[in-house]
Amino acid sequence: MILGGDCNVALGVVAGLSGSGAGVVWFDAHGDFNTPETSPSGFLDGMPLAMACGVCHRHIWDALGGEPVAETHVVHVAAAISTRTSSVC
Amino acid sequence: MNVVSSLALGRQAPADALAPALAAIAGRRSSRPRRPNERQAVEAVYVHVDLDVLDPTMAPAVDYAAPGGLEPDELIQALHAVGERFGVVAVSLTAFDPEQPDPDGRTLRQALEILRELVAVGHWSNLGGNAMTELSMDCLAELGDQSGRGTLSLDDDRLEFAGSFRLTLQLSEITAVRVHRGRLELVWPQGHAAFDLGRAAQDWAEALGTRRSLLDRLGVKPAPWSWSPAWTISSSAVSFANGRAPCSTGARRWPPSRNRAAYAAASVRSSRCRR
């Protein structure tokens, strides 16, 4: 169990579960799937799920170790704002 | 990516709204051997909750509140729907901001409530095919000056011995657990007992420790308490330092042989600080 200030704490958890075959269920009002290309501000906290899936900032996995989770193994729940085109931040 | 919108959750029962997406990641369950490139079906999940998933009227003290969020009850039902379908092996709760206005501490209360639910949905004891949800063993027991044979059993919050005498103990009552030469020795304010469990004694002690203290260690209590800055955890520190160490331990041991899935990494220290 991890308590965190922002959603990027999830990267450490996903890295720790790497290789276990575990999926991810992500409850968030925001898509958290921005990338540097889609984010107007480049705000990192808009990208945690994209990073967890290895969609952007791939180099972070060199530090984390392990493998990103497959997008097909992720359920995003309750995005009030579209997952792929999150306009927030 | 499988997406379940808050609208979908509002239209039908959370369990029903989630079912197709959960089925999609669960994949096939067939006895046919997996092909080399075929992905393994998901049986376990990590559940992440950003508090902003709740409607801002319920949980305003977050940085990026978005209107149209979930009711707490919807979230709790959704969490249980996930827990019923998968083994929940890790959970995280994020984005509470104590510097934001929080009328009557409602965000904090919701956060604690969700934390309780996250602990509850975790199939912490039901992983790796080595379920310990109901541990049971015949043994010789001593309670005060009584001794005799019977069956010792453990469920979520209680230990029972039934045989030549009966004993029921809430795990929360137990103040000390010790293993000595295959004997499991328990102490509580009104008494003490010992059970001859042989080589299994250590496993029982571990199971007791895990179940008894998870919530205690987290300091999760329903009553409101004053907020301590020690609870505010730097996300980068958790991701790249604290978060990684316990999790990678878990990955090496995967699937965990016992109740090892609750990684109280960041929270242990803060709950101690508060006391």
Account of the 3D structure:
The complex is a heterodimer of chains A (89) and B (275). Chain A has 89 residues and is of the alpha+beta class. Chain A has one domain (1-14, 23-89). Chain A contains three helices and three strands, in the order βαβααβ. Chain A is globular. Mean pLDDT of chain A is 87; it is low at 82-89. With 275 residues, chain B is of the alpha+beta class. Chain B has two domains: 6-129 and 218-274, no CATH class; 135-210, Pleckstrin-homology domain (PH domain)/Phosphotyrosine-binding domain (PTB) (PH-domain like, Roll), CATH 2.30.29. Chain B has helices spanning 6-11, 14-26, 72-85, 106-121, 201-218, 235-242, 244-252, 267-274; strands at 2-5, 44-50, 87-94, 135-143, 146-154, 158-163, 166-170, 176-180, 183-188, 191-196. A seven-stranded antiparallel beta sheet of chain B has the order 7-6-5-4-10-9-8, covered by helices on one side. In chain B, strands 2-3 form a two-stranded parallel sheet. In chain B, helix 2 packs parallel to helix 3 (72-85) and helix 3 (72-85) runs parallel beside helix 4. Strand 3 of chain A pairs parallel with strand 1 (2-5) of chain B.
**Oligomerization state:** heterodimer
Number of domains of chain A: 1
Total number of beta strands of chain A? 3
In round numbers, the mean pLDDT of chain A is: 87
Sheet having the most strands of chain B: 7 strands, antiparallel
Number of helices of chain B: 8
**Most extensive chain interface and residues per partner:** A-B, 54 and 77 residues
Order of helices and strands of chain A: EHEHHE
Structural Rg of chain A: 12 Å
Order of strands across the biggest sheet of chain B?
Answer: 7-6-5-4-10-9-8
Low-pLDDT sequence parts of chain A: 82-89
Our measurement of the CA-to-CA distance between the termini of chain B, rounded to an integer number of angstroms, reads 42 Å
